[in-house]
Amino acid sequence: MEFKILNSSELQWELNFHPTEPWPEIIPVIACKWENGFKVIAGFDRMGQNHLPTIILARGPWITFNRYWQEIPLRPIERIRFENKVGIDIKGQHILAWPLEFQIYLDGRQIPLKNLHPLEYLQPWMGELVPVFLTSSFTASEVREIIELLCDLKLTGFTWEQVYVKENWLGHLKRIRFPKTYQADLTREEKVQEIPWPRGIRAKWERQGDTAGISIQTKVTTPLEWDRLRDVISRLEIKRDLWDL
Amino acid sequence: MGSLENQFTELYIHDSVWNSEVAKRTRSLLKVSAIRVDSKPYADQRSQLSGDEFTKSKKRLYLAPHLGQFFRKCPGTQGAACCNYFVLNLGVQCNMNCSYCYLQSYINSPLSQIYTNIEEALFELEGKAREFPNAPFRVGTGETIDSLSLDDLTLYSAVVVRWFQNFPKLTCEFKTKSANIKNFINLPHSGNVVVSFSVNPEKIVEAEEHETARLWQRLKAARDAADAGFPVAFHFDPMIYVSGWQKLYSELVHLICSLFEPLEVKWISVGALRFPPQMKHILRERFGGDSIGNSSELFLGKDGKLRYDLGLRTKMFTHVKDEFLEHGKKFPVFLCMETPESWLGTFQNTPRKVKGLDELFVAMPS
Ligand code: SF4
Question: Is residue B6 part of a domain?
Answer without folding.
Answer: no
